[in-house]
Design a protein that fits this description.
This protein is mostly beta strands. The chain is 4% helix and 43% strand. The chain has 3 domains: 122 residues, Immunoglobulin-like (Sandwich), CATH 2.60.40; 380 residues, Methylamine Dehydrogenase, Chain H; 82 residues, Immunoglobulin-like (Sandwich), CATH 2.60.40.
Amino acid sequence: MKKYLLVFVFLIQCSIPFIADANPFSLPEHIRYLSPLPNSRYVATTSPVIVRLDEKVDAKTIQAGMVSLRGSSGGYREVTIKISDDQRTLIVVPVQPFSNGEEVTVMFSSGVLTASGGNIESFHYSFTVTSISVPREKYASGIDLEIAEAAAFYAASKKARSNPIQYDNQNISSWVTLPKDFPSTTILKEDRQTAGTLYLSNLDYSNTGLYSPYLMVLDQSCNPLFFRKMESNCFDFKPQPNGDYTYWNQGMFWGMDSTFTVKDSYLCMNGISTDAHDLQFLPNGHVLYLGMDVQQLDMSTIVPDGNREAIVLGLVIQEMDGENNIVFQWRSWDHFNITDATYLDLTAATIDYVHANAIELDADGNILLSSRHLDEITKINRETGEIIWRMGGKNNQFTFTNDSSGFSRQHAIRRIANGNVTLYDNGNYHTPQYSRAVEYQLDEVNKTATLVWQYRNTPDYYGPAMGNVQRLHNGNTLINWGATNPSVTEVTTDGTKVFEMTLPEGVYSYRAYKTEKAILQPSSVSANIELPYTFSLQQNYPNPFNPTTTISYQLSAFSFTTLKIYDAIGREVSTLVNEEKDAGTYSVQFNGAKLSSGIYFAKLTSDGKTQIRKLLLMK
């Protein structure tokens, strides 16, 4: 991984005068991207200022005092300036957070040069940080709301049926003994010519108590090649292009190597919650995240009878480089109106007005975003942050051809090899309700979307929440139907069904993926498929926190284990774990309500090993 060219730490004195904006802000020459945008609101109190140039920066020309951040109540802040691995992006990070409601003024002095000698002229602008920090316990996340939607659908559909769904051919593996709480699979259609490997995780809405959450890798006959029991539901379990595997659990994504050993964690920065819906590794080693930014707003100023203390869930896209620095950030507050949402009660106490559920690196390097509660696919310029186009919903710019219904509450926008896009059309607002896989040919100049292929089962399947579509290398299409049974279907280009399987009634999978090569053979895997754990202490989430945070850790062997919290001068302030523990993954809560703001350290000791993580308590 490339290292930064340089890192500056500046303590700016009040030597640069503040001049109020007299004219609308325009980007100076040589600057391609700026974040936060001028006059932005609801910006995180620890948000960096990101400045991207049109070419590489001459690092030698960055001098102390060239960039400063000043808060309206707290004055100038000490800052750290870094240059990302593209050598074009400056990241200005305040060492101390701003206070809620502060107006922050950014001042950039002239003298910074590009590699070819272009001078970055001086500029300044302001933005406002969030006025109220909303505690996590006050709201449900977007994935929580979608889970509730799926559970309500299952309860209603079960009540409407007089008898439970009956399946034949229960698949019980003949080569390994499965745990009793592992959900059985039923193969409804199997063509041996479509061999491959399936990746999914189960969500149980059956209320039977029979099934625990598992990560599972299955061969085409649904024999488990790998499984791991988890303490809570997992989402978006999938292989990444670099050979790793990722899944979301307990507030963050976890990375596993080719042996399914947990080796890393991935989470949004600067107080933004990591959304469970999607995570994408990019060819340049960067990572694209979906984040959730929660604000308390007076909705009576936006809609009649709006809640004066509404909790509104905003969207943040973050791109991080190999050193976990944000090099691109895009906020729904700057680009979407809350009233863009479709079919939502905007007078409610909680409003999830975007509900992003998929992010995709387009073939031209820009970003495709799926926003379920806007009924919209948005294309975003990854170089400038500007919206290129909007398809679907209230702001639709496209004419749909061969498709009078369009899509509704969609998931999983993907650009495929032939240049078209696929998505899973949940179809919540179709009449009648039905779900389908669709493929559109887009003319992005003339703004037309032509339906060139679709698969709609006969009779209809309807998954009101979750789900995805994956175009396979052989031209077939894998469909995970989300919150319904059956679970997964594979069809050919002419719509012939070549594979179909289901989990038990009321047991769903958020997404399912397939690789067309087997990663393991049953004969090569021991009966103990739950592969070894590693010893690791993960970064707490959220961080900074107030007053509670979650600390996750993994133990590689049975041993006496301690997890203790120390203050900055080494005094023990809390013992969270002090007992013998089996190998496995664990999470505990740390409550700092009785402690003062500051830096603390979590220390994990087990089996002769020790790891330490830094925690930041902000009140």
